[in-house]
Amino acid sequence: KRYRSNLINWGMLPFITEEDHKHLSFQNGDYIFVPHVRSAIEKGETQLKVYVVGNEQGSFESVRELTLKLGELTDAEREIILKGCLINYYKG
């Protein structure tokens, strides 16, 4: 719970996956592309289709689809994420 709160307070998305961490479908050096992430947060979506772009020997040719979950976020948590961090949220 503390880790999740820290992510949100720093404006990061608390993604959850059902995959076993030993068999995740991405590796160190891969990029995760999350299209339309702002509108998904605004709409209250709890699952997002993301794309893992593989970085194999400096080439970004491999693209795989993955579903990541956000879980239930309160309205305040969504607003903190949309503002960028907790400091910006209180700043106004």
Give an overview in words.
Helix content is 33%, strand content 26%. By secondary structure, it is of the alpha+beta class. The chain has a three-stranded antiparallel beta sheet, with no helix packed on it. The chain is elongated and about 45 Å long.
* Shape category: elongated
Strands of the widest sheet, in order across it, are 1-2-3
Order of helices and strands: HEHEEHH
Oligomer: single chain
Terminal CA distance: 26 Å
- Overall number of strands: 3
Stretches with pLDDT under 50, minimum 5 residues: none
CA radius of gyration: 15 Å
Topology of this protein?
Layout: H1 2-9, E1 31-33, H2 37-43, E2 47-56, E3 59-69, H3 75-83, H4 86-91
Antiparallel strand pairs: 1-2, 2-3
